[in-house]
């Protein structure tokens, strides 16, 4: 395992981290076993979220049972926008993770409007500053799916790390990732396998490890064999074979695959198009049915409400047949 400074925080993290979404598929004991393997393989960066149902609790159980808190860099996040709600989430995370200190607390995927609320008086940022002052959290980060939010976060001094989808076929953040490093902020590459769409995990992880602008790559894992495989790579230059495999993935992984760039917005009736496809991916590829259905249920406008005006398709740079894809998603979710 290779280690790297986490931006300007003074902390060092493993290049390959642990994405804590998929452990919702196992249980607390299974998570403990997984953590034994993570420690054995040198992983110290642990990513979870208040929104990942039982993930924080399972991780907390594993940490306490193994007595390994001091060996880990713990990162979690909250979608709350107000000071009160965010402060409550920080306390819940501390309780769930069974610790008195979280290394990185992140603002979880805010929209531009929500970010306004977070930064305004009475907003979540005040809770983050107070928690930092009180020594409950070490550093503040932000996660985004929208390039516009990523770009805005680059200009926010208190943001010490940014997490964004980045992989062989989702390179819409490439220039921003470079700027992120230039500004001394850590960059966390989420969705390294494009939400399960990339099957060649080796090529996907190596593509990111060989990018010096990427601080840490966080594949979601719930099986020990995934930990062993994902931690077996280094950052040596790509071989010809690997470069060819990466190119092959780029060429073949086209068709109905949403890169979550959000250029299709705004939808005429308010459908959050990339969110629909994101949740559908969790449903179809991650096997996280209950969670995916829960998050889909939270969308104000469902895929079935598309009036087929076609405006989104004119804006999609990948010429995706969005209307057809939405029909499929509506069928999968039943609404
Ligand atoms: S075609 Fe459907 S999804 Fe696209 S903009 Fe129109 S209503 Fe929205
Ligand atoms: S549907 Fe197209 S434009 Fe919309 S987020 Fe996906 S890839 Fe981007």
Q: How are the elements arranged and paired?
A:
Elements: E1 3-5, E2 12-14, E3 18-19, H1 28-40, E4 45-47, H2 55-66, E5 73-78, H3 83-96, E6 102-108, H4 112-119, H5 124-133, E7 137-143, H6 147-154, E8 161-165, H7 174-182, E9 186-190, H8 201-209, E10 216-217, H9 224-230, H10 240-252, H11 273-286, H12 289-297, H13 311-315, H14 322-333
Parallel strand pairs: 3-4, 4-5, 5-6, 6-7, 7-8, 8-9, 9-10
Antiparallel strand pairs: 1-2
Bound molecules: iron/sulfur cluster (SF4) (2 copies).
Task: Give a short synopsis of this structure.
By secondary structure, this protein is of the alpha/beta class. The protein has helices spanning 28-40, 55-66, 83-96, 112-119, 124-133, 147-154, 174-182, 201-209, 224-230, 240-252, 273-286, 289-297, 311-315, 322-333; strands at residues 3-5, 12-14, 18-19, 45-47, 73-78, 102-108, 137-143, 161-165, 186-190, 216-217. The protein is globular and about 55 Å long.
Explain what the structure shows:
This protein is of the alpha/beta class and 335 residues long. It has helices at 28-40, 55-66, 83-96, 112-119, 124-133, 147-154, 174-182, 201-209, 224-230, 240-252, 273-286, 289-297, 311-315, 322-333; strands spanning 3-5, 12-14, 18-19, 45-47, 73-78, 102-108, 137-143, 161-165, 186-190, 216-217. The strands form two sheets. Strands 3-4-5-6-7-8-9-10 form an eight-stranded parallel sheet. Strands 1-2 form a two-stranded antiparallel ribbon. α1 (28-40) links the parallel β3 (18-19) and β4 (45-47). The longest helix has 14 residues, at 83-96. The protein starts with a strand and ends with a helix. One iron/sulfur cluster is lined by residues 258-264, 273-274, 316, 318, 320, 322.
């Amino acid at each position: 395992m290779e280690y790297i400074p986490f931006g300007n925080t003074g902390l060092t993290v493993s290049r390959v981290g642990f994405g804590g979404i998929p452990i919702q598929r196992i249980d607390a004991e299974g998570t403990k076993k997984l953590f034994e393997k993570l420690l054995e393989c040198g992983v110290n960066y642990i990513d979870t979220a208040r929104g990942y149902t039982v993930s924080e609790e399972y991780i907390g159980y594993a940490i306490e049972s193994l007595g390994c808190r001091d060996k880990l860099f713990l990162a979690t996040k909250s979608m709350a926008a107000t000071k009160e709600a965010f402060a409550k989430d920080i306390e819940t995370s501390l309780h769930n993770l069974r610790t008195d200190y979280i290394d990185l607390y992140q603002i979880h995927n805010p929209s531009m409007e929500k970010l306004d609320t977070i930064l305004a008086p009475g907003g979540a940022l005040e809770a983050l500053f107070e928690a930092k002052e009180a020594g409950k959290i070490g550093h503040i980060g932000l996660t985004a799916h929208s390039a516009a939010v990523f770009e805005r976060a680059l200009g926010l001094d208190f943001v010490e790390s940014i997490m964004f989808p980045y992989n062989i076929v989702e390179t819409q953040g490439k220039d921003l990732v470079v700027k992120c490093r230039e500004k001394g902020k850590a960059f966390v590459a989420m969705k390294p396998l494009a939400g399960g769409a990339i099957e060649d995990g080796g090529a996907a992880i190596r593509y990111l490890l060989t990018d010096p602008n990427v601080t840490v790559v966080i594949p979601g894992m719930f099986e020990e064999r995934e930990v062993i495989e994902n931690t077996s790579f280094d950052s040596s230059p790509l071989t010809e074979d690997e470069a060819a495999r990466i190119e092959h993935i780029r060429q073949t992984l086209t068709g109905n695959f949403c890169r979550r760039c959000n250029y299709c917005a705004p939808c005429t009736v308010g459908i959050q198009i990339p969110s629909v496809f994101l949740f559908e991916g969790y449903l179809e590829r991650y096997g996280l049915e209950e969670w995916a259905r829960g998050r889909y249920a939270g969308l104000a406008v469902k895929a079935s409400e598309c009036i087929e005006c076609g405006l989104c398709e004119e804006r999609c740079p990948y010429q995706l047949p969005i209307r057809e894809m939405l029909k499929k998603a509506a069928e999968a979710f039943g609404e």
